Please model this.
Amino acid sequence: MSKIFDLGRTPEEWSEKMRARGVDLSPRTLRSKAREHGQYFALGRTMLITPDQMDEILLREADRDVRPVDFQRMNRPKTA
Model:
């Protein structure tokens, strides 16, 4: 059988796996992020996400959350 079918999981399945680890990620949010990053396979109305695609989604979202620290702004005196 195809590796995609063997390894791929629906957003609902991934959500349950994440919840078991203490991460609250809804299937709807995961579906949205998968589409946004183009990291999914679709067959009809079924969406499958492989572990590699899930890693890519998580990494891209983590990169988005990292913001460079503006030390100059932090060291400016506060104005009233």
User: Anything to note?
Assistant: The chain is about 60% helix and 10% strand. The mean pLDDT is 87. The longest strand covers residues 41-43.
